[in-house]
Amino acid sequence: MEPVRTCVGCRQRAKQHELLRVIAQGENLVIDRLAAGRGAWIHQSKNCLELAITRFAFSRALRTKKQFDTAAVAVHIEQAETMLAQK
Ligand SMILES: [Zn+2]
Fold first, then answer.
1. For residue 27, how far is its CA from the centre of ligand 1 (angstroms)?
2. Ligand 1 centroid to 7 CA: how many Å?
3. Would you report the helix, strand and coil content of the chain in percent, each value rounded to 5?
4. How much distance in Å is there from the Cα of 49 to the middle of ligand 1?
5. Containing H/E element for 72?
6. CATH assignment of the domain containing 13
């Protein structure tokens, strides 16, 4: 059975493939499904990203007090949403 994860934005549970996996790479958050270590899961959605940023949910999920640059994740989500909108 496919594992279920909680989105750090909206806090809803979803199957793993419906979520993006975000990891810390220095000061940046990047999307990486395979990297070892702690990851945070989030819907491919601007709303969820904004919620996660507002709630400092990434820092919490990654067990650090660091503030991350979420630009790379934002770009990824934006591109994905644009692609979906064009379908
Ligand atoms: Zn979500």
1. 23
2. 5
3. 40, 25, 35
4. 8
5. helix 71-86
6. 3.30.1230.10
CA distance 69 to 3: 28
Mean pLDDT of 57-82: 94
Instruction: Report the pLDDT averaged over residues 12-26.
Output: 96
Task: Say how many domains are in the chain.
Answer: 1
Domain that holds residue 8: 4-86
**Distance between Cα 48 and ligand 1 center (Å):** 5
Q: At residue 75, what are phi and psi to the nearest 5 degrees? A: -65, -45
Question: Looking at the predicted structure, is the pLDDT value of residue 85 above 90?
Answer: no
CA distances from 47 to 10, 24, 65, 79, 81 (A): 8, 20, 23, 14, 11
